[in-house]
Write a structure and sequence with these properties.
Layout (H helix, E strand, L loop, with lengths): L4 E3 L8 H8 L6 E3 L3 E2 H6 L4 H4 L9 E6 L3 H12 L5 E6 L4 H5 L10 H14 L4 E6 L7 H13 L4 E4 L14 H10 L3 E5 L5 H8 L6 E4 L1 H5 L3 H10 L6 E2 H15 L5 H12 L6 H10 L3 H14 L5 E2 L8
Parallel strand pairs: 1-2, 1-9, 2-4, 3-4, 4-5, 5-6, 6-7, 7-8, 8-9
Antiparallel strand pairs: 10-11
Helix pairs in contact: 1-12, 4-6, 7-8, 9-11, 12-13, 12-15, 13-14, 14-15
């Protein structure tokens, strides 16, 4: 049975540019935005319009808010509740030190009562859209405490939980514990989404059919392979999937970046995207270095063109099999 596929919230990545790129291959079911600071949104900063740009498919957008002040989170959620979107999400999973230090992100998981009270305030302001929360396992492996936390969120009106099954201190080198996704899924009445270690379309399809969750969220792999959702759907239907022209995809990204993001954002957004996308080629580190040295988007495009002119055998991703390898 098919489940929804969702794009994860990723700083400097989950913006209109990546959504346009993914949509050009057929899209996914929901797009989470990168973290939106509740205080910054309320202050009306000059760049906030780019963070809340819901195009190209506003009906698929989930705005993710981050913050430490319940009142600010509730007011920001009220603003977003009036926009066309799929839902509003609260970040309780970011473990970056600067976020935790401010009492945001995964900090909330160490303070359950405060988290539930905050979500209760937000829920009162979110009347039209779905309200969700993205979490980790917590600060230590404790299934009883994890379920207590999740059931508390359910009790105050959360409609959906996304679980990234690593603890607050674990980095990507530690494999995700998907059995905890299944545990939470089987213990709650609300939807539970699994997120973590989806590397290929085969992995995505497998997790989606595992029965452990109500949907699968993909992060870095969707940057590396913006076609991953379309490929997984093709596998599901046992349909062929066309070869991918890496040069064309890279140039398309640069074109979307020029169209939809301010010039001040170009260097950081391009660097973050190519950090992952260049994994598709043999000399990825070399190509990333050249791209980062290129000062303008036009120069970056020339770097891509020259690389694939020098290495034409790497330009195309072969036709992926529609059968399991």
């Amino acid at each position: 049975m098919s489940v929804p596929y969702l794009l994860a919230p990723m700083a400097s990545l989950s913006n209109r540019v990546l959504r346009e790129l993914i949509e050009s291959f057929g899209g996914c079911d929901e797009y989470f935005t990168e973290m939106i600071s509740a205080p910054a949104l309320l202050a009306g900063g000059p760049y906030e319009k780019f963070y809340i740009d819901g195009e190209p498919v506003p009906s698929k957008i989930v705005y993710q808010l981050v913050g430490s002040d319940p009142e600010a989170l509730a007011r920001a959620a009220a603003l977003l509740d009036g926009r066309e979107c799929k839902g509003i999400d609260i970040n309780m999973g970011c473990s970056a030190p600067e976020i935790k230090k401010r009492g945001a992100g995964v900090w909330w998981m160490a303070h359950p009562e405060a988290a539930w009270n905050m979500v209760d305030q937000v829920r009162k302001q979110v009347r039209r859209r779905r309200l969700s929360v993205k979490i980790r396992l917590g600060f230590e492996l404790n299934p009883e405490e994890l379920l207590r936390f999740c059931k508390g969120l359910e009790a105050v009106g959360v409609d959906m939980i996304t679980l990234h099954p690593r603890t607050a201190s674990e980095k990507f080198k530690r494999s995700s514990r998907w059995e905890y996704v299944g545990l939470v899924h089987s213990s709650l009445r609300i939807a539970v989404i699994g997120n973590g270690d989806i590397e290929t379309a085969f992995h995505l399809l497998e997790r989606g059919q595992s029965g452990l969750c109500d949907g699968v969220m993909v992060g870095r792999a969707a940057v590396r392979q913006p076609w991953i959702f379309a490929h997984a759907r093709a596998l599901e239907k046992q349909e062929p999937f066309s070869p991918v022209d890496l040069l064309e995809v890279g140039l398309r990204f640069l074109n979307f970046l020029a169209q939809y993001q301010p010039e001040e954002f170009h260097p950081s957004r391009a660097e973050k995207f190519f950090l992952y996308f260049c994994d598709n080629v043999r000399w990825g580190h070399y190509l990333r270095t050249l791209l980062n040295r290129a000062a303008s988007l036009r120069e970056k495009a020339q770097v891509l063109e020259q690389y694939f002119q020098d290495h034409p055998e790497e330009r195309w991703i072969p036709r992926p099999s529609t059968l399991n390898p």
